[in-house]
Structures are given as structure tokens and as C-alpha cells.
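Quick one, T. Sequence first:
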Amino acid sequence: MKNTFWFALAATTVLCTGVLPVWAADADEKDGDEGSVEVPARPPKMYLAIAKFEDRVTSNYYDRHFRLQQVDNIRQRITDKVVNTRKFDVIERERIADILKEQSLQDTGITSGKEGDMNTPRAGMIRTCGYVMLGSVLSIGEDAAATRVDGTSAAVSKMKVEVQIRLENVESGKIVAAKTVQGFGKSSATGTRGTVSAGNIAEQALRDACDDAAEKAVALLMELAYPATVIAVGSKDITINVTEEMCAKGEIWEVIELGDEMIDDRGESSGADEEEIGRVEITKPGPKFSKAKPLKKGHMHFSGSADLLDDIEVGMRVRRVKQEVLDAERQQFKKKQKQQFESNF
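C-alpha cells:
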């Protein structure tokens, strides 16, 4: 499987963010001896500002006031989900440049800090980068249907929301990532004597679509800033640095090996080829990491070798398999089963 786009983005972010080694003195008294050891503190979080989203819906089916409500709703959902990842310091956009400027002055020794202060930068420290998430809602669409037979009514609503997400590096002013995500929602109900409200059905479907779009936007951010990787390989499963907020039990993920980085004529990275090593199923999502086991041969989504654990190495990337890919494979699997069954007659 070839995909150079995300590697290039991840590489750009790693160069910017780095790991900020902060040291704190910790006095340790044991057996009457006094001494101090330096213990590395937890790495700092990346600064992120989520700008006001734009309404770029061209259709006049919904009035502007309604559209602006949905735009703000999506932005708020994204903000909540980003905060829940516990990976970012979400701040006001106007403050991010000032914070980074202050860090720069401290790094060069222009500003002073108390000796031993954990928040005072020291020699060799790399500053945390700041990013701004920009967003535009491109479309909001509904596919609705309603029927009534013998006093029983039924209604179904399918909603789709299309959102463009861009990530800007505050220091360079460059857009380091841009992608359009689509959120889907569906709701239905049945009732008698007109008890079904098509409006309520549509509202629920729209909420689900907005939430789905927000989830995908945050997944984009996490893939850029904190690429999901294998951190341990056991005898029966693997451990990945993906938290329970970003995965669910039963999900299918692919393990990827990156090739050599490709450099273009301007000396800039064009990413690297990707090769799918195999697929795993999330078995135990956790607050700090998650467990996954290789799919067995014969599984409808199986990919790789029967001894997949022998092929997986620490540091390899992992990524959720897209739902549309799984749906297509499921249909193909059922078709093959039917053909095999019919061949017996």
C-alpha cells in the first residue's frame, strides 16, 4: 500500500515539535546518605489554537443562521475531543504567538527564570511548536424519506457534513496539512397516528454527522502530531501508543512499514513509500496504550502472513482501516462464500 502524504506531514511535525527534556531535582535520602538525582519530567504538550470556522456552504437549502449554528457546533465538538486526548494545550489563537515568542526569549537567555524552576528552559531544550487549526464547512446535505401505511408511519434521515481542515504552523506561517473529512449520520423511527416527527429525526442525524466529522478531524490531527506506532511486540499481541479515546474494541488496524524518505529537487521531503505488513484487531483499548492481536487466516479482513507477529517490529506505524474499505471487503467475502456454496450443487 502506497501513501506518501501522511509520512511527509508527520515528518514535518516531528522536526518542529521534538521532545522537550525538562529536568527536576529530586532529593533522595537513603541509609543516611543525602544526594540528588535528576528525573525527567513529562514532555510538554503541543500548543494548539482552534480558530473560528467558516461557513462556505454554497447551497441555500438551509438559512445562514442555521448553517452558522452547525459550523460553531462542529468547532466546539472538535475542541472538546482535542482536549480529551490530553495531548495538547488548547489556547486562544491570539495568545499562541506571544507564548512562543516568550519561549524563544527564554531559550536565548534574554529572560530569566528561577534556578531549579521546572518551567525554565535550559541549554539544549527545543521549544514546543504552536499550531492553529483552521476549518471550513463546505456542505450540509440530507437524504430523507417518509411513508405511511395503514396508520403506521416511518421516517428516515441521512445527513452528510463536509468539513475542510487545515493546520498552520504559527512560527513559519505554512499550512502543514490540509484535508477534507466527511461526517455521516442516520436516524429513523416508526410510529402511529402521526407520532413520528421528521424534524426530530433529521436533528439527530445531523448531530451524529457533526460528531462523526469532528472525530475524523481530530484523528487527522493526532495522525499528524502523534503518529500511531507499535511500542511492544508480545507472544500473542502487540501494544500500540493509541488511547481508548482514539480506538475501539473490535476495530481493524493495519501495520505499516515505511520505506526510505524521498527528497525532491528542491531538497524537500516527499515522504516515503508505505508497505502494509498485515492487520490487527483492537482487543483492549486503554487510557495510555492499547492491545491488538493479529487477524487469523480466513478472517474476511485478513492480510499479511500467518506468522504476523514475527514480521512486526517496534516503531512500525499503525493506522485504522477505512470503513469503506472494510465494507467492500465484506461484500467481496460474502460473494465468494455464496459462489463456493453454489459450486457444491
